[in-house]
Amino acid sequence: MRNSGVAARGNRTSTVLGRRLGGELQRLRLEAGMTQQQAAGYLSATATKVVKMESGWVPVRDPDIRALCQLYGVTDDRVVDGLLDIAKTDRERRKVKGWWDNGLVPGAVDYIAMEDGALRNRQWQVALIPGLFQTAEYIRAMGVADLPWDDIDQLEAVVESRERRQRRLHGDNPLLMHAVIWEAALRQLMGGPDVMRRQLDHLCELSDLPNIHIQVLPFRAGGHSGVGGPFNILSFGEDKAIDVVHMDASRSEIWIEDAERSAVFIGMFNSLVTSSLSPHDSVQFMQSIAKGMRE
């Protein structure tokens, strides 16, 4: 598990594949009983370099991978070739710059970059509408209510960023989105009845898209597996990339980036799906709540 409040260090950005590669190198080092200092000495490098490699903050060169595998006693060519493949793909992905690098929304770059590269997003929300589904006026109401903005331009930057992220829901290769939303998030009058009614109408419209599945977990479902708080699971196209779990804490982010821990959250999400209304019934449920806000 990793806490991450920043997106880049030393002008480098952590990537999904970089973290996966770094985790594998760390595992091999620990199995060989080696320290980071020993690995650094073998590479004629500093321990800081090894730390960055194992954390996924820098691209890793093929000669360094081969040298470390030799040091760690890795003789299986399939393992070495697999690491080299991950490193190559990671280096290619790092060359691509996205709109999120403009600095408009500091602190969110790492997540937005991951989301942009994902094929699928499974999300559980307790108190808020999922960000990719939020209307502009809902975002503004949420920002005014919760965050201390120095000026209105900062809030508008958040609105602009979120609207750009929402483009992933459309186009030729749209993001597959499956969201489970607790009833409380639908009834909370963020911005007042009119703003919330239009937000609910927007959710119903999004439900018509083939790549979007929205389910509501009603109060009457009783106890559920998501009491620990909201989370989302990002899935990627690369064969070597594992599912990554992301959670927003009060003033930080929590990432879970190994298969065993990710599987726990996948199981929790599947349980929430089973306890929730079907997508069709969820739309009817949201429409009924919106109707009550019109009266």
Please state the structural category: alpha+beta
Q: Helical element count?
A: 12
Q: What's the architecture of the largest domain, going by CATH?
A: 2-Layer Sandwich
Low-confidence sequence ranges = 1-12
Q: Mind describing the biggest β-sheet?
A: 7 strands, mixed
CA-CA gap between termini: 47 Å
Domains counted in the coordinates: how many? Answer: 2
CATH topology of the largest domain: Endonuclease, Chain A
Helix content: 40-55%
The tally of strands reads 9
**What's the rounded overall pLDDT mean?**
86
Order of helices and strands: EEEHHHHHHEHHEHHEEEEHH
- What is the name of the CATH class of the largest domain? Alpha Beta
Strand content: 5-15%
Describe this structure in words.
This protein is 50% helix and 13% strand. With 295 residues, the protein is an alpha+beta fold. The chain has 2 domains: 7-94, lambda repressor-like DNA-binding domains (434 Repressor (Amino-terminal Domain)), CATH 1.10.260; 101-294, Endonuclease, Chain A (2-Layer Sandwich), CATH 3.30.870. It has a 7-stranded mixed beta sheet with strand order 1-9-8-7-4-5-6, with helices on both faces. It has a two-stranded antiparallel ribbon with strand order 2-3. The protein is elongated, with a radius of gyration of 22 Å.
